[in-house]
Automatic annotation (TrEMBL):
This is Aromatic amino acid aminotransferase. It comes from the Bacteria. Homodimer. Residues 27-385 form the Aminotransferase class I/classII large domain. InterPro entries: Aminotransferase_I/II_large (IPR004839), Asp_trans (IPR000796), PyrdxlP-dep_Trfase (IPR015424), PyrdxlP-dep_Trfase_major (IPR015421), PyrdxlP-dep_Trfase_small (IPR015422). It comes from Blastomonas fulva. The keyword Transferase applies. Keywords: Aminotransferase, Pyridoxal phosphate, Transferase. GO terms for molecular function: transaminase activity. Belongs to the class-I pyridoxal-phosphate-dependent aminotransferase family. Its cofactor is pyridoxal 5'-phosphate.
Length: 391
């Protein structure tokens, strides 16, 4: 039987990590892997999380099962941060999932079970979106999120797609810090999207994997609130793996907004059943640590300060890149306007290969760069390489 299986292509980013590790040049720059880094190239455990983990270790007296919904204290503690001043009036609840990935998977499962057959999404996107949606059996319709050459959001393409979408179709939207383009909708655009989604009775799935890493919780949640305040039903896939630095602990949640509070019990029972069939229960440690941070004012303050310094560092890098305006085909000024961990540069695969071979600059084949891979010290080297390969 197993000889029927065709070998799958190796994950390109993982291959890139190996190549980077084997490169002995001191001036090499890693812009590939999608995690936050300090100016020293580290991805440390947050101080607030370290403190919460110490408490967890001291106080936890059982590892007994929790249930498919995970740690509901964690799930509910995220809600005020996620929703800001939006009052869910008993219409939103959720469950813990293994990372944002698990939340997207469960969202797709639930949509299918509820009768949705088609979902619209902008591209490029996080590559796993299309894999998950297809694995579940949803038909994926795509539109261009951004014109990489001009670095402009293609809002016309989105409008045309929503125009073609039919009542009962779902639409997947990145809440903030779009992966991979960093190009987010303006508040006016979000209002317009929300109006159309509501008028056409489309089902919104908002993926919020970088909440707080753009301009802060309030600003980064504008789009989510704009949509929630206009539609009867919505799904929110939330990840704490970036904004609490918990990547490998797999911390996420899926929230559902129902038309009335009375519908929550049935929806939650469906989510629990789907979770049981997928992974039974989510891992506890990371979510419990997040809960401990959010239950404690002092730890919450430490966490918010850590996030603020991450934001400031990424903003500083973006400003430093943007100061170079344009180099060859690459519009760096736009990078200054974008948000979060990523941007995509307009480079050919030959130029990307030359940057790696001649300058030790490692980036994904798509031209995606990790903003946190830059430092004040390595930007001049990167710019020199960019000038050379685009000349
Ligand atoms: N959605 C988007 C847009 C992402 O970029 C990611 C992670 N890279 C996820 C979801 C999944 O996050 P997690 O690592 O928590 O599974």
């Amino acid at each position: 039987m197993l000889e029927q299986l065709k070998a799958q292509p190796a994950d390109a980013l993982l291959a890139l990590i190996k190549l980077y590790a084997a490169d002995e040049r001191a001036e090499k720059i890693d812009l590939g892997v999608g995690v936050y880094r300090t100016a020293d190239g580290a991805t440390p455990v947050f101080a607030a999380i370290k403190a919460a983990e110490a408490r967890l270790l001291a106080d936890q007296n059982s590892k007994s099962y929790l249930g498919p919904e995970g740690d509901m204290g964690f799930v509910r503690a995220i809600m005020p941060w996620m929703l800001g001043d939006f009052d869910p009036a008993g219409r939103i609840d959720g469950l813990q999932t293994p990372g944002g990935t698990g939340a997207v998977r469960l969202a797709a499962d639930l949509l299918l079970k509820a009768g949705v057959r088609r979902i619209w999404m902008g591209t490029p996107s996080w590559p796993n979106h299309v894999q998950i949606l297809n694995a579940v059996g949803l038909a994926c319709e795509t539109f261009r999120h951004m014109d990489v050459a001009t670095q402009r959001l293609d809002f016309n393409a989105l409008e045309a797609a929503l125009d073609k979408a039919e009542a009962g179709d779902a639409v997947l939207l990145h809440g903030c810090c779009h992966n991979p383009t960093g190009a987010d909708y303006s508040e006016t655009q979000w209002d317009e999207i929300a109006e159309t989604v509501a008028a056409k009775r489309l089902f919104p799935l908002i993926d919020l994997a970088y909440h707080g890493l753009g301009h802060g919780f309030e600003a980064d949640g504008y789009g989510l609130r704009a949509v929630l305040s206009r539609v009867p039903e919505a799904l929110i896939a939330y990840s704490c793996d970036k904004n609490f630095g918990l990547y490998r602990e797999r911390v996420g949640a899926l929230y559902v907004m129902t038309e009335s509070p009375a519908q929550q019990a049935s929806v939650q029972s469906n989510l629990a059943a789907l979770a049981r069939a997928n992974w039974s229960m989510p891992p506890d440690h990371g979510a419990a640590s997040v809960r401990i941070v959010l239950e404690d004012e002092g730890l919450t303050k430490i966490w918010l300060d850590e996030l603020a310094s991450m934001r400031a560092r990424m903003r500083g890098v973006r400003d430093a890149l943007a100061a170079h305006q344009a180099i060859g085909s690459v519009n760096l000024a736009a990078v200054g306007q974008q948000n979060g961990l990523f941007s995509v540069l307009q480079l050919t695969s030959e130029q990307i290969a030359a940057l790696r071979a001649d300058y030790g600059v490692y980036m994904a084949g798509s031209g995606r760069i990790n903003i946190a891979g830059f430092t004040d010290a390595n930007i001049p080297h990167f710019i020199e390489g960019l000038r050379a390969v685009t000349a």
